[in-house]
Design goal:
Glutaredoxin; 8 helices; Glutathione S-transferase Yfyf (Class Pi), Chain A, domain 2; 2 domains; homodimer; 4 strands
Chain lengths: ~230, ~230
Amino acid sequence: MHTLTQFKLCPQSRSIRLVLNELQIDFETREERPWEYRDELLAMNPSGELPVLSLSGGPILCGSYAISEYIAEEFKTANGAGRSVSLFPGSREDRAEVRRLVDWFHGKLARDVTRDMLEERVYRAYRAATASSAPDATILRAVRQNLRYHMSYIAYLAHERRWLAGDELSFADFAAAAHISCLDFLGEVPWDDYEPARTWYSRIKSRPSFRPLLADRISGVAPPAHYFDLDF
Amino acid sequence: MHTLTQFKLCPQSRSIRLVLNELQIDFETREERPWEYRDELLAMNPSGELPVLSLSGGPILCGSYAISEYIAEEFKTANGAGRSVSLFPGSREDRAEVRRLVDWFHGKLARDVTRDMLEERVYRAYRAATASSAPDATILRAVRQNLRYHMSYIAYLAHERRWLAGDELSFADFAAAAHISCLDFLGEVPWDDYEPARTWYSRIKSRPSFRPLLADRISGVAPPAHYFDLDF
């Protein structure tokens, strides 16, 4: 059995869980608190970053970049509806657009919003024994402002295209949905102002691959009621 | 003619310049100051990030991830020595290792060191008209400490392997060399303590593809004498 070492609210981990679910690849998860930098994690991935995918009888793959490209090469199976899911579909130029957007979400959105939001609202509380657990209001204000810019961009893409990178569902959608789902878990997404983004997210959230993510619970944070609602 | 929009001391830009030079692809460069977020840049790449590669008669590719993967698929030519240069050589597992390390250098090393170092020592001075140009000593101390950790890791890889990701030269070497060359331009690399890293860098610096980078000059920063020296 393949093993995905992950943290439930880690966007990079979530993007890979979605991909594995979409491709109907069986795997078990091993929960890791990324802020603890445990020796067992560092032995698998010296960067201490998540996710890490340990393939049964195969290599250990570190990080969503290496994992997604490996999976795209290795697994090309059909999903329940009989359609094959390609992470980087289309022409060479189409694939470049998917990768530009994956970089946008796992790179820029992570830097501008998700990393700091998770640090302030989740990680910090877990570390409360050694530090103050109150989020920094200045940082929260800044990342919430940044999030509005990113919501505008997602709404723009969702309005112009069938999926975020073009006509086909791609890893760009899973990467974006992974970040948005973490922020939505924390009740941070201002849905009312970004209708096309809501419509897009509602479509991807309704996919069977998304269901396990909606069942996630972590101690100390209660997601808002609409987090589970497919028709929110 | 292809056009690379770049900033001379941007590590991501440098990694792509090295790749284009290695593959003997003709291109011209257009210099952009990334901290200015000019409309012309945003029109090509809404993220405002560098590099951007505009292919003659073809697509505009944004960011080192999309560009490197596109080039790996598109161009497979031979270099001067008659050997072909593959950005992601070897088996699927070997390619995952290259990508893990590309992520390490363009992701982690950038976050831990290069981005802040360039901000404090270069960008800030260019913006001096509107802000204080003195680097923040606390930040510099922290990123210099982080750099020692990264130098240890590069030295470890260089000691264990022929090239950083394995037997073959790969995009991981170009990504690492791009960051190290920017830091070396600023005289920030503590070479004496990391002999295997120095040996590796000396080998990659001696390649013809590296020569244009050694000729770079920017106003306000004078690189140390050893920056140009192939046998430093």
